[in-house]
Amino acid sequence: MSETQITEWLASQRQAMIDLLSEVVNIDSGSYDKEGVDAVGARFERHFSEHGISAWREAHGTFGDAIHAEVAKPGSNEKPVLLMGHRDTVFSKGEAGRRPFTIRDKRAYGPGVADMKCGLVMNVFVAAAFQKFGGNPHPIKVLITSDEEIASPSSRPVIEREGRAARAVYNSEPGRPTGNIVTSRKGGIFMHFGITGKAAHSGANFAAGVSAIGELAHKIVQIHALTDLTKGITLNVGLVSGGQSVNTTAPYAEGQIDLRYINPADRASVMAEIERIMATPYVPGTSAVLTIRGEFLPAVQSENSKALFEGYQAAARDVGLTTLQGEFSGGCADSGFTAAVGTPTICGLGPVGGLAHTPEEYLELDSIVPRAQALALAILRG
């Protein structure tokens, strides 16, 4: 097997990649839509079968099943390279019907087209290339998960297990609009807090009431005050609700918090402050309960991850991606889980796209082939 064979075959598969992308974009697969997420998984399983690649499912009762595939030479006991990605989207059922896969001016549009169905298409075609031309010195493992957009509640243990078993992880989240890839990311914690007060008529019996909304307001101000931009720590209360009626002191109120941070050591200190705020009532008689609903770990660039990036960057230059650099992202991804278990990890290797999570989400079609070629060469040389 030669580098030329791999890169030329991938170039010949451009239309096949676009065709598969069209199919999977046109299947609704919101994170909570197990049926839809598994339907996308089944389409990728068919691809593996068509290319003679061994694949299997790891079932889950609530969220989509994890899809595994492997390309390995018989008898190999080397640690595999892990190609990773998620097939769920943030969009509700019916979105694919409302705005199906379309192409305009060298860009593709549709729900999840960049984030991250095209990265998955790239991964499975890279695996097919190695299967076609006789494998790789190190086995190639493909993992397609189901719930990244909600912080991978079912997939995290699978990702951590597969990450520990791998020699390197390539996570094919979309390439940055700059054309760069992602070498480090923030961690994130998504929390809910509920406040209990006491209802009373706000005109006739005001003094008997205890306003949960009043308490909510004070807690929001204190939570936002924990933001420290110099350290990359941000807090945002992005959703609030509460109250019974305009003329009743609010017996209940709730909010949802988004915490982002860079340094793993900052997690404990910020969480301790949030818990202190929750435990300290400003409005006497209120109480609060805090619940973590989802969490991503930061992807911190280790020396081994830096070396992995430099190898990928060299491969990218050889297929014409001469300006590609590494970028930091404030967004979270599953790559944080594999970085945290100590496996060299890089992210954002997928084809280039932008405006994820919006109706304007797009993918640069001309980036599909060179990004696939760069990944294949990086694996081959690694």
Secondary structure layout plus pairing:
Layout: H1 3-12, H2 14-25, H3 34-50, E1 54-58, E2 66-71, E3 81-86, H4 95-98, E4 102-104, E5 107-109, H5 113-132, E6 140-145, H6 156-165, E7 168-171, E8 181-185, E9 187-196, H7 212-224, E10 234-242, E11 252-261, H8 266-279, E12 287-296, H9 303-318, E13 326-329, H10 335-340, E14 345-347, E15 353-354, E16 362-364, H11 368-381
Parallel strand pairs: 3-6, 3-7, 7-14, 8-13
Antiparallel strand pairs: 1-2, 2-6, 4-5, 5-16, 9-11, 9-12, 10-11, 15-16
Would you report the number of β strands? 16
Q: Give the overall shape.
A: elongated
Q: Which consecutive residue ranges, at least 5 long each, have pLDDT under 50?
A: none
Q: What is the count of helical runs? A: 11
Q: What name does the CATH topology of the largest domain carry?
A: Aminopeptidase
The run of helices and strands is HHHEEEHEEHEHEEEHEEHEHEHEEEH
Structural class of the secondary structure composition? Answer: alpha/beta
Q: Name the CATH homologous superfamily of the largest domain.
A: Zn peptidases
Q: Strand fraction band?
A: 15-25%
Give the overall pLDDT as a whole number. 96
Q: In order across it, which strands form the biggest sheet? A: 1-2-6-3-7-14
Helix content: 25-40%
- CATH-defined architecture of the largest domain: 3-Layer(aba) Sandwich
Keywords: Hydrolase, Metal-binding, Zinc
Protein name: Peptidase M20
Active site: 88, 148 (proton acceptor)
GO molecular function: hydrolase activity; metal ion binding
